[in-house]
Amino acid sequence: MYARIVKLLDKSVLMPSEETPLEESECISLLDIVKLSITGRCHFGSDTNKPVTIKIYSSQDADSWDTEPLISFNLPCHTGQWSQKTVMLFPDVMYIKASAKNLNTSGSVTNLMIKAFVAEP
Question: pTM (2 decimals)?
Fold first, then answer.
């Protein structure tokens, strides 16, 4: 089995209330993928108190993307610290992209990264 990690989204600063557009995300083809997990990681500023929401979107053709996320999860706020969370997915769609939204209205988040672990037969 061949496994690799693909960076979906990498953002140095996510400003208060900012949501990244899908255009900032890499597109991953899941055509031959048998295992898939998504990991979100960021550093919360000292003035944060709300989570960051990670959203994974799917597409059948890599052109038309769903308007609602396939899955979403929160990175819990740990003020002044790193937060990381991994979720497992069934790779039953053709393509995925990611976005993130900072739910804080005054505090920023730094070093946001969303990665996919993919395994092929």
Answer: 0.94
